[in-house]
Amino acid sequence: MTELEARPEDVGAILVKVQDDLHQLRDALLQRRTEATELDLSSLENAIEKTEYGIKAQSERILGLVNNRITTLPSVDVTKEKYSTEQFAVQESIWDISPIDVYNARREGALYDNNDRKIVPRYTAVEPGRDSGPYGPSAGQQSKYVYSMRALVDPTSTQNRRVLGENYGVSLPALVDKKTPKVPEVKAVTGSTVDHLAVLPRANRVDPQLTPPPILESDARKGILSLIERGLIPPAAQLTLDPNPVRHKQAALHTFTEKTDGGLGGFGDGTYNHAHIKVDIPNLHQTSNALAKQTLTGPVVPARTPSQAPSSIRDGHSWARSPSKSRQSSAKSSKMQLVPVKDNEPLPPPTTPAADFKHLNHRFVVQNGQVRDDGKDFIAFKQHYCLSWGNIVTTLKYLERFLTSYAIPLAFINGDRIADLAAETELGSRPRNEDFYCVLINSDDVRSLIDKPGQRYRAPDGIAAAATKIQSTWRRYKDRVAYLEYRRQKWAAGVIALSWVMHVKMARVKGQLKVKRQTELDGCRKRLKKFQESWHRIKKSRRVLIHIPSLGYSQKIRSTINDFNVMQNQQMGRLCDLADSNVDIIYVSPVTINDETLQYYNKLLGLRAAVESGSVDSQKDMTPRFTIIVPESINSFPSHNMCLATHLKYSPRALQRIKNLIAGKEAYLVPGVMHVDDLSVAEELDLPILASEPQVAQLYSTKSGSKRIFTSAEVSIPPSDYDVYSLQQLHESLTQLVTENLDVRTYLFKLDDEFDGRGIAYCHIAPNLRCHAWAKKESLRYGEKWTSKWAQEAAYVKIHAEIPDILEKFACPVNKKVFPTWEKFLAAFLSQGGVIEACPPSESVTAITANILVEPDGKTTIVSCGDQIHAGTPFACWGLSVPQSSVDPAQLKTACLKVADSCKQRGVLGYFAVDFVTFIDPNTREQELWAVDLDLWYDDCMAMSQLMMYVTDGKLDVDTCLYNIHPSRKEKKKPLRRVKYEDVDPEEPPVTTRYAVMSTRLMHTNLAVVHYSVFFQMCRAHGIGYDIKEKQGTMFTLIDSFKREGMGMLTIGDQLPGTLSTFARNLSIIHQEISAPNMQGTTNFKLVIEDIEGILGTTLQNLEQEEEGVIDS
């Protein structure tokens, strides 16, 4: 027989040798049969047995090349009961990692072949039920393993670092190769790599309304994108895929009590953790000999389950068995066979577990702050993470210290998570206490114990920790109190220092401003003195008037006024100073003037020549004689409500333009309400001011200041008391006034700094005074002695007791928008002071306004006077009817001249207005005239009076209070032949008196929807206009070019009732034309019409009484 070589060979070659042996055996049998000798069957059995063994040995070696697996022992951590079932096969192997008796091995001839190569057989469990052969890796896994081994043994491979890191956890140092390999130049291939999308036919692209072409099957195969790009599917179409590629499935939700244990895979399936293998080194030599004997003498030992494993595996002894017992145990087992694996394949070193085996979750216990390092779980965890054990030990020390500090009796630790935590904090700072909760399995129980008050002090070092805590808390409290005190002192020192620095700087700035304003005031006085000396020359020469309609009220008042700039522009009638041919006008406007408004005023001012000549064709262009300048800072301070003088002060370009216009000419300023910035503007322009100094104007324009003027002028004033600044003084003064004037029913309370009826409140005292009737009897009883203090004492006490309650219950402010309640009015009254004034004891009271001019040389002129027209409240002037017809002209002239003389004594200069009230005294039945208010500035009524004189060429006769005009020129007609004896009526003389009703406060929100051109066409259609020949009609002043909600109106007629009726008719027509039933708008037209109707009724009653008196006489 041919001897088989002890090396792996092909099965085909073995079968050929066996075939040769069988041929030789057949020839030998035939030869012996012919010789008639007895056949020896032992040689036949030996040949069959050797053939069978050779085939098995060669098959096992060939399969070992395919089954490239590391055979392992079962994990020592796994309990015997867990492997008691027969569903897992047992894999047994021997690792040749210790020296062996080579002599005995050579003598046995099993572990070494002819070339003295060491043979370490390895056995793998084979499942007979599968068709794939041995239960090992597939062909793809084998090729992957071979590729990995090649990269492992080749240091120059690009995959060497990745294989070592992923399979064995070895991190090689990063080596930077300074030599950059030369990248071979690759010629880029240009051009499109995709087919062009098909497009729509040209007809469909030109006209999208055409029917799109049909969708063919070839188009559908190109996909939805192609159809959308071609336009066959609209871009906004909603596409639905059927069936839907995304299928929804309800996710299973498990409770927190359910725990899933990942089953351990089979030993040969590649999922078992090889780091748990424990090698039996002392018995390795005996096991190798036993295996060698079994290999030569009989079949291999079958695989066993852990329950069927020999005691040598559990006790560390040899597990070799005889062939007969092996066959019996194999029959009783699951018929699994062991296949020898190739002996010369390299074995990988033991490494840390890969990321695929993190689901094993190593767990161990920390009891009383100490890790149970003798437990099997901890030993397995330590062996699993042996390569990174240093960082884990450090983290465990921190964990033990943390659990010990809170006296945690028992904690279950997740080993994999603490390994991850150790890796995260390897190069960083120490882990925080909050980081340990994620590694605790029973974190909720541990957290509840830690959160329990006082748990920290139940630890072994609890007493020391408590003492430290008490000491640190006390030190913290003491240091905190000291620090807060230090911080408070430091803050106070900072505030004091900052306040002092600000005080010093403010004082310095105030000093500089005071010096500057004093310099400006001194300059103003010098220029005024020079202006007074040369007034006669300036008055007759060519001059320029610079009108600045500024309202220099206090900032507190300006902030409460809406549309403040529009309010300042209500004096557009100042342009009518052009009536003097020697005057040029520079008007500083607080609002922007558009071209339409500018064209209107140019045409209006051109009527002067036509009015003088009586011919419409005589109009002139007045554009060269007036200039309107808008300061550039008007839009720079939209929310400050700054007066016009302040805007002009901060407008250098506007000031420079004014300087250029007045260069070489006589000029002076005509301001409005004086402000300190008017002095700055005058100083900048080096011009005099035709007005009082700001301090003088502000002092005597107050209600208390005007009372001083009237008292010194010895004109009649109502019973009043001024300079009231406290509540006690208010009660005492009011009580004294009520006691002395028991006939007065109502008293007024006026704030010093307010204007136009805004700061007025009233209270009906007599009707609500319980002791009024008794006090009246007492006054009658004492008679003329009632003026003595001793006679009024008893009544004074009783009235004083009732005054506070009466004021609290019945006092009411006039302007509810500014002062909604009496309490707010009283607070403002006591803060800035005011006057208490008796209301005229009559139901018919007429208010009169007289405008006076005090020229620089001291000459006094009453420019105009008129009766006030009210809208809504009798305490605010809405308009005037000029001239006045309510009081004796001589009496009014005398009072005005007295007030003017008193003002001149106090340095008042320029334009100012005096308000009077007249009524019939119920006791004496005589007409009384009381001076009630004084405004030391150029007001709206003065501006409208200038317009009236400009368009009528008339003048006010102060002695008769009649406004006379020059009679119009009539064309000469040829005399007709008259009959000798015919009676001819003489021609009636023309009416040369005129009356005017004027106002600058027409307000209607619907005017904003009508342009001025349309508005004037509407007025012309209804006969609202001005007759130049008759010098009668209606004129308008446009004060707002953009919002257009307000305007001024002047109506002139030859009779006062007719003029009032025309004015009311004009208001009614305008309201009807610009309003709709569903859009009435906000307006004051209705209130004015009602007041005019009341005036007309009173006028008719007076005429009837005069006629009755004439008839009686």
Structure, described:
With 1113 residues, this protein is α+β, with helices and mostly antiparallel strands. It is built from 35 helices and 25 strands. A hairpin with a 7-residue loop joins β24 (1032-1038) and β25. α26 (703-713) packs across α31. The radius of gyration is 61 Å and the shape is elongated.
Helix content: 40-55%
Gyration radius (Cα, Å) is: 61 Å
Sheet-strand content, in percent, reads 5-15%
Structural class: alpha+beta
Q: Figure out the total of helices.
A: 35
Q: Give the termini distance in whole angstroms.
A: 184 Å
Number of strand segments? 25
Key terms:
alpha+beta
Describe the structure concisely for a colleague.
By secondary structure, the chain is an alpha+beta fold.
Secondary structure elements and pairings:
Blueprint: H1 11-35, H2 41-66, H3 102-108, E1 123-126, H4 139-153, H5 160-168, H6 202-206, H7 217-221, H8 224-230, H9 284-297, H10 311-315, H11 323-332, E2 337-340, E3 363-367, E4 370-371, H12 376-384, H13 389-405, E5 410-414, H14 415-424, H15 443-450, H16 462-533, H17 535-540, E6 543-551, H18 555-558, H19 564-568, E7 583-588, H20 595-605, H21 607-613, E8 626-629, H22 644-649, H23 652-662, E9 666-673, H24 676-685, H25 694-700, H26 703-713, E10 720-724, H27 727-740, E11 746-751, E12 760-764, H28 772-782, H29 789-810, E13 812-813, H30 822-832, E14 834-838, E15 846-854, E16 860-869, E17 879-882, H31 889-905, E18 910-920, E19 927-935, H32 940-952, E20 954-957, E21 962-965, E22 995-1003, H33 1012-1021, E23 1026-1027, E24 1032-1038, E25 1046-1053, H34 1056-1074, H35 1085-1112
Parallel strand pairs: 6-7, 6-9, 7-8
Antiparallel strand pairs: 1-2, 3-4, 3-5, 10-14, 11-12, 11-14, 12-13, 15-16, 15-18, 16-17, 17-22, 18-19, 20-21, 22-25, 23-24, 24-25
